[in-house]
Amino acid sequence: MRIFSGIQPTGELHIGNYLGAVKQWIDLQNENDCIFCIVDLHAITVPYDQRELADLVLEKAVIYLAAGLDPEKVIIFVQSQVKAHTELCWLLNTITPLGELYRMTQYKEKARSKNENAGLLNYPILMAADILLYDTEIVPVGEDQRQHVELARNIARRFNSTFGETFTVPKEKILKEGARIMSITDPKKKMSKSDSKESAISLFDSPENIRKKIKSAVTDTYKTIKYDKEKRPGISNLLTIYSLLSNTKIEEVEKEMKGKSYKSFKEELAELIIKELEPFRKKRKEFLSREVYVREILKQGSEKANSLAASKMSEVKGKMGIK
After folding, report:
1. Which residues contact 38 (CB under 8 A, 6 or more apart)?
2. For residue 242, which of 226, 265, 258 has the smallest C-alpha distance?
3. Predicted local confidence at residue 104, as pLDDT
4. 108 and 237 share a domain?
5. Domain ranges, residue 315
6. Would you say residue 177 has pLDDT above 70?
7. Is the N or C terminus of the chain more exposed, i.e. has fewer CB atoms within 10 Å?
8. How far apart are CA 309 and CA 160, in angstroms?
9. How many whole angstroms separate alpha carbon 140 and alpha carbon 136?
10. 112 has a pLDDT exceeding 90
11. Looking only at Cα atoms, what is the longest distance across the chain?
């Protein structure tokens, strides 16, 4: 199966990103044709520091590699290095009704912060271009991106209906339990790279920081360690993290923790997180010392992606009468 997914270079990668996306990628890379992108063009739709962007792109590539993506099995590249993404985005703009864009939940949320711009409105079309350019069959995403993949499906169908069969209609793949790891300071909100550092566990947090964050994580006034997402979002979120990191069903974690205090559970969870993230910290340090190697991986990835994209763009432009 052809798989495509991407992560913005801005913000620290946290365990929500890992459990909800990157862990899936690692599992998928062994038996599928995978393309993973650092989507720097998406990142500039909100205020950012242009002096740091290039460094953040390189850092994200290091994180991809440290997390376990194998450049011998997958294509890893930077979105802006493949011009076809923006070219196809413009062409897809011409067949996408404005109403569909205004209905996007993420656009509504971000527009409220007074950062509204045309790029933010057209963000989902660029994402559709990312996906459709490579005849993607499966898009592993978090629950919050489901609506964007559905738009990509609609655009693909509309283009195929208007100009003839051209694009593969993609499907989303969502890891049910890991799709929405919540903030540890506000468990009713999804863990986010844009929130305060206290609300998320970075993949590269020190053991001391992990213990401190988990110790202060929001729970509730109950005394039993029981999963109830609606009534007890705090403890349920911590149980989900424990379950996914230990590859143990939540019911089994509940049995294991029966009779233990929240304090004991949090201590065990913190140590589990530290243990599971230790390999990432070591590999990150290694790849940061091999910058030339990482840049070569991105260069080769861009060349492979450009080759695939050029073929698809030739087909698209021919169908649209653009010579």
Report:
1. 6, 7, 8, 9, 57, 60, 61, 64, 76, 77, 78, 79
2. 265
3. 86
4. no
5. 2-179+290-320
6. no
7. C
8. 18
9. 11
10. no
11. 71
The total of structural domains in the chain comes to 2
**Based on the domain organization, do 136 and 262 belong to the same domain?**
no
Q: Distance from CA of residue 96 to its chain's centroid? A: 24
Examine the domain organization and report whether 277 and 295 are in the same domain.
Answer: no
Residues 6+ apart with CB under 8 A from 147: 104, 105, 106, 124
CA distance 315 to 309: 10
Enzyme catalytic residues:
110, 190, 193
Here the contacts of 212-217 (C-beta below 8 Å, separation 24 or greater) are 213/184, 214/184, 214/238, 214/266, 214/269, 214/270, 214/273, 215/266, 215/267, 215/270, 216/184, 216/185, 217/184, 217/185, 217/266
Q: Per-residue pLDDT for 227 more than 80? A: yes
Q: Is residue 236 part of a domain?
A: yes
- Give the bridge partners for 74, in sequence order: 34
Specify the pLDDT at position 24. 76
pLDDT score of 296: 97
From 47, 30, 35, 46, select the one nearest 6 (Cα to Cα): 35
Beta bridge partners of 302: none
Higher pLDDT, 68 or 95: 95
Distance between CA atoms of 303 and 300, rounded to whole angstroms?
A: 5
Enter the pTM of the model. Answer: 0.84
> What is the distance between the alpha carbons of residues 300 and 35, in angstroms, rounded to a whole number?
12
303, pLDDT greater than 90: yes
**Between the CA of residue 315 and those of 99, 179, 310, 318, what are the distances in Å?**
28, 35, 9, 5
Q: Is residue 261 located within the same domain as residue 312?
A: no
